[in-house]
Amino acid sequence: VQLQASGGGLVQAGGSLRLSCAASGSISGLGTMGWYRRPPGRSRDLVAHIHAGSSSTDYADSVKGRFTISRDNAKRTVHLQMNSLKPEDTAVYYCYAYVNDGSGYFRDYWGQGTLVTVSS
User: What tens digit of pLDDT does each residue of 39-66 get?
Assistant: First the structure.
């Protein structure tokens, strides 16, 4: 199973970016998907996640009202629409997914990380 993230880049404060993450490989089931981020010199924190069945979502307080997470189960992708970006959103963003890889159990898989830089 591989997760491929894309969409990072450099943007000015107030701008927008859309991150995408596609899962591929031996996938029997796809569970919760989401995004974490690691700002420079800090620990990795949850940004948002979206559950499989209900598509219910949860967001970090710092991004509520600005970021929107969505998923396309048919394409095995998760997206993060980031609006009104702030310099403090600068971080490496990592996607993850809980995947049943045919073993009968769900375990977490991670993407390679994509850098988002917001200039002031």
Answer: 999 999 999 999 998 789 999 999 999 9
What lies within 8 Å, CB to CB, of 20 at 6+ separation is: 5, 6, 7, 77, 78, 79, 80
Q: How far apart are the first and last CA of the chain?
A: 37
Amino acid code (one letter) for 5: A
Of 118, 107, 115, 119, nearest in space to 19 by CA: 115
Residue 10 and residue 21: Cα distance in Å, rounded?
18
The pair phi, psi for residue 43, each rounded to 5°, is -80, 165
Q: Which two tokens stand for residue 22?
A: 């596609």
